[in-house]
Amino acid sequence: MKKNTNEIIRLLKSANYHLNNGDYGISCYESRLSAIYSMEILANYLNIEINGSNLREIYKQINKIVNLSSIRYCIDYLDSLKNLEVNYCDTYCSDEIPGAEVLDYVNYDDSFRAYKCSNEIKDFVFRIIS
Length: 130
Description:
5 helices
Protein backbone atom coordinates (compact mmCIF):
# COMPACT_ATOMS: atom_id res chain seq x y z
CA MET A 1 0.00 0.00 0.00
CA LYS A 2 1.41 3.37 -0.98
CA LYS A 3 1.30 5.73 1.97
CA ASN A 4 0.17 9.33 1.67
CA THR A 5 0.32 12.39 3.87
CA ASN A 6 -3.42 12.26 4.59
CA GLU A 7 -3.02 8.85 6.25
CA ILE A 8 -0.28 10.24 8.52
CA ILE A 9 -2.50 13.13 9.56
CA ARG A 10 -5.45 10.78 10.12
CA LEU A 11 -3.33 8.50 12.32
CA LEU A 12 -2.05 11.42 14.38
CA LYS A 13 -5.57 12.77 14.90
CA SER A 14 -6.66 9.32 16.00
CA ALA A 15 -3.62 8.98 18.29
CA ASN A 16 -4.49 12.31 19.89
CA TYR A 17 -8.12 11.20 20.33
CA HIS A 18 -7.04 7.97 22.01
CA LEU A 19 -4.48 9.80 24.14
CA ASN A 20 -7.16 12.17 25.43
CA ASN A 21 -9.55 9.26 26.09
CA GLY A 22 -7.07 7.19 28.08
CA ASP A 23 -6.44 4.54 25.40
CA TYR A 24 -2.69 4.93 25.76
CA GLY A 25 -1.65 1.70 24.08
CA ILE A 26 -3.65 2.43 20.96
CA SER A 27 -2.37 6.01 20.93
CA CYS A 28 1.24 4.81 21.14
CA TYR A 29 0.65 2.32 18.37
CA GLU A 30 -0.92 4.90 16.06
CA SER A 31 1.83 7.41 16.80
CA ARG A 32 4.51 4.87 15.99
CA LEU A 33 2.72 3.79 12.83
CA SER A 34 2.43 7.39 11.63
CA ALA A 35 6.19 7.79 12.13
CA ILE A 36 6.81 4.67 10.05
CA TYR A 37 4.53 6.02 7.31
CA SER A 38 6.31 9.39 7.42
CA MET A 39 9.68 7.73 7.01
CA GLU A 40 8.36 5.52 4.20
CA ILE A 41 7.11 8.63 2.38
CA LEU A 42 10.51 10.26 2.82
CA ALA A 43 12.25 7.14 1.49
CA ASN A 44 9.93 7.13 -1.51
CA TYR A 45 10.57 10.84 -2.13
CA LEU A 46 14.33 10.18 -2.05
CA ASN A 47 13.94 7.11 -4.30
CA ILE A 48 15.25 4.80 -1.60
CA GLU A 49 13.91 1.29 -1.83
CA ILE A 50 13.11 -0.07 1.61
CA ASN A 51 12.26 -3.58 2.69
CA GLY A 52 9.68 -4.02 5.40
CA SER A 53 8.46 -1.47 7.90
CA ASN A 54 11.09 -1.60 10.62
CA LEU A 55 11.46 1.99 11.83
CA ARG A 56 15.11 1.58 12.81
CA GLU A 57 16.07 0.07 9.44
CA ILE A 58 14.21 2.74 7.47
CA TYR A 59 16.00 5.38 9.53
CA LYS A 60 19.41 3.81 8.82
CA GLN A 61 18.78 3.66 5.09
CA ILE A 62 17.60 7.28 4.82
CA ASN A 63 20.31 8.59 7.16
CA LYS A 64 22.92 7.54 4.59
CA ILE A 65 21.56 10.25 2.28
CA VAL A 66 19.89 12.82 4.57
CA ASN A 67 21.12 13.88 7.99
CA LEU A 68 18.40 12.72 10.38
CA SER A 69 20.20 13.61 13.61
CA SER A 70 17.50 16.10 14.61
CA ILE A 71 14.91 13.32 14.85
CA ARG A 72 17.14 10.51 16.13
CA TYR A 73 15.85 10.83 19.71
CA CYS A 74 12.29 10.39 18.46
CA ILE A 75 13.24 7.44 16.28
CA ASP A 76 14.95 5.80 19.26
CA TYR A 77 11.95 6.35 21.51
CA LEU A 78 9.37 5.18 18.99
CA ASP A 79 11.47 2.17 18.06
CA SER A 80 11.41 1.14 21.71
CA LEU A 81 7.61 0.94 21.49
CA LYS A 82 7.74 -2.01 19.09
CA ASN A 83 7.67 -4.20 22.20
CA LEU A 84 4.44 -2.64 23.38
CA GLU A 85 1.42 -4.68 24.34
CA VAL A 86 -1.58 -3.84 26.49
CA ASN A 87 -4.84 -5.72 26.94
CA TYR A 88 -6.97 -3.43 24.80
CA CYS A 89 -4.35 -3.24 22.09
CA ASP A 90 -3.66 -6.92 21.41
CA THR A 91 -6.11 -7.29 18.51
CA TYR A 92 -5.91 -3.74 17.19
CA CYS A 93 -2.11 -3.83 17.14
CA SER A 94 -1.68 -7.44 16.08
CA ASP A 95 0.69 -6.66 13.21
CA GLU A 96 3.18 -5.06 15.63
CA ILE A 97 3.03 -7.47 18.51
CA PRO A 98 3.80 -11.11 17.58
CA GLY A 99 6.78 -12.24 19.59
CA ALA A 100 7.00 -8.92 21.39
CA GLU A 101 7.99 -8.49 24.99
CA VAL A 102 4.86 -7.81 27.03
CA LEU A 103 4.73 -4.61 29.06
CA ASP A 104 2.23 -4.36 31.90
CA TYR A 105 0.98 -0.89 31.10
CA VAL A 106 1.45 2.26 29.12
CA ASN A 107 0.75 5.57 30.80
CA TYR A 108 -0.18 9.05 29.67
CA ASP A 109 3.44 10.21 29.59
CA ASP A 110 4.48 7.33 27.30
CA SER A 111 1.61 8.05 24.96
CA PHE A 112 2.11 11.82 24.95
CA ARG A 113 5.83 11.42 24.25
CA ALA A 114 5.10 9.05 21.35
CA TYR A 115 2.52 11.47 19.94
CA LYS A 116 4.89 14.44 20.24
CA CYS A 117 7.77 12.53 18.60
CA SER A 118 5.59 11.38 15.73
CA ASN A 119 4.54 14.95 15.08
CA GLU A 120 8.19 16.04 15.05
CA ILE A 121 9.03 13.34 12.52
CA LYS A 122 6.02 14.26 10.38
CA ASP A 123 6.99 17.95 10.43
CA PHE A 124 10.59 17.10 9.52
CA VAL A 125 9.48 14.93 6.59
CA PHE A 126 6.85 17.39 5.36
CA ARG A 127 9.45 20.20 5.28
CA ILE A 128 11.65 18.08 3.03
CA ILE A 129 8.95 16.90 0.65
CA SER A 130 7.17 20.26 0.36
